[in-house]
């Protein structure tokens, strides 16, 4: 039985700050492009402060996700097999095909039992 961990509030706070930084960098980009249209400016890239804000938000978001994530769960065949019985493993109704084309394809074949 696994021990439940307390939720990591610091990690969630980091994710929230990263989200607002990401949103603000998008808004700043929109404002910058609107300004360039208004003054007929032809700048090829974004200002350095918007780029740094965007990269900081992505890095903080990655850190927040790592802090919030739980421990990995084991994926072992033995533990999965212990949960199931042998009858449930053999019963695979999705592989049963009752409406196949065998009757139409082999209708002219005479079987030995029918002779």
Automatic annotation (TrEMBL):
It is found in: Endoplasmic reticulum membrane. The keyword Transmembrane helix applies. The chain crosses the membrane at residues 12-30, 50-69. It is a multi-pass membrane protein. One of its GO terms (molecular function) is inorganic cation transmembrane transporter activity. Keywords: Endoplasmic reticulum, Membrane, Transmembrane, Transmembrane helix. The keyword Endoplasmic reticulum applies. One of its GO terms (cellular component) is plasma membrane. Its main location: endoplasmic reticulum. Belongs to the membrane magnesium transporter (TC 1.A.67) family. Component of the ER membrane protein complex (EMC). This is Membrane magnesium transporter. It comes from Linnemannia elongata AG-77.
């Amino acid at each position: 039985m696994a021990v439940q961990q307390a939720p990591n509030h610091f990690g969630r706070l980091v994710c929230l700050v990263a989200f607002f930084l990401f949103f603000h960098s998008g808004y700043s980009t929109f404002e910058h492009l609107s300004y360039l249209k208004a003054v007929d400016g032809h700048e090829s890239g974004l200002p350095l402060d918007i780029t740094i804000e965007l990269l900081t938000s992505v890095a903080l978001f990655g850190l927040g996700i790592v802090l919030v994530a739980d421990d990995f769960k084991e994926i072992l065949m033995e533990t999965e097999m212990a949960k199931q019985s042998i009858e449930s493993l053999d019963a695979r109704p999705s592989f049963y095909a009752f409406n196949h084309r065998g009757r139409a394809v082999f209708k002219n074949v005479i079987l030995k039992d029918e002779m």
